[in-house]
Design a protein that fits this description.
With 92 residues, this protein is mainly α. Helix content is 64%, strand content 0%.
Length: 92
């Protein structure tokens, strides 16, 4: 076989290998997308079960919610907050 024939044959083999890789990557990305879709469905389904289990219509507007606003833990007055000047006076 001549050099040109061998070169052409190798080029076709390279093209076939690249196409096989691309198709395999396509199947891999399809699998990833399907897995993400199923995870979203499962999370949504678990959220519905949790709401039904607790008997909560809207978890964010109910007073017995597990979510607590940060203002509940804020100090009652501003006098309890220390300034950098307070720290300087105690170090002397």
């Amino acid at each position: 076989m001549s050099f040109e024939t061998m070169s052409l044959l190798l080029n076709w083999m390279q093209l076939g290998a690249l196409l096989a890789i691309v198709f395999r990557l396509g199947h891999t990305f399809e699998l990833i997308a399907n897995t993400q879709r199923e995870l979203r469905r499962a999370i949504h389904h678990l959220g519905e079960l949790r709401v039904a289990e607790l008997g909560i219509d809207n978890a964010f507007s109910r007073p017995g919610s597990a979510f607590v606003s940060p203002s509940r833990y804020a100090p009652a007055t501003t006098e309890s907050i220390m300034d950098p000047d307070d720290l300087a006076s105690t170090s002397l």
